[in-house]
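A quick aside before the break. I want you to see a complete sequence-to-structure record at least once, exactly as it would be stored in a machine-readable document. Don't worry about memorizing anything.
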Amino acid sequence: MTLILFNKPYDVLSQFTDRGSEATRATLSTFIDVPGVYPAGRLDRDSEGLLLLTDDGRLQARIADPKFKLPKTYLVQVEGEPDEAALNALRTGVRLKDGMTRPAETERIDPPALWPRDPPIRYRASVPDRWLRLTIREGRNRQVRRMTAAVGHPTLRLVRWSIGDWTVGDLEPGAWRTA
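That is the input. The structure line, written in tokens, reads:
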């Protein structure tokens, strides 16, 4: 069995081929040349961080399927300064168009020591921002972004830090290692 931990850079698709665009976009094949491995779950093109790839279909399903409630932790830079009411809403579940989310663990954190993003987040002197650590146990489409927007704090930068016990650790963007 092969398990790869990959630090997916911003603007890279979580698939090996780009079927939907005339312009060539970066894909996993730009970084990983290991036959027979596939992503266990997805990470949006505009999100960064840990993506797991494996050649084990059962492990892939266990990682990706929400019924296993594997915790996924994100470092999230949001617009504005979330108050306790906003954080409590995230902690108890947020109503989205596709229903209530499960409760998320969330806390304010100091800005993490991360790699620079290219392109950088647009800085606005008149609009504060804040970093949160958010852990969810489901995986709806763009869920973290939709949750923070629902409580009035749109996501500016989203980095998946860990999935279960696996973490991006000191992997640089575009780098990978086997577990």
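Two observations worth writing down. DSSP finds three helices and eleven strands in the chain. The chain has two domains: 1-68+165-179, 71-163. We'll return to this after the break.
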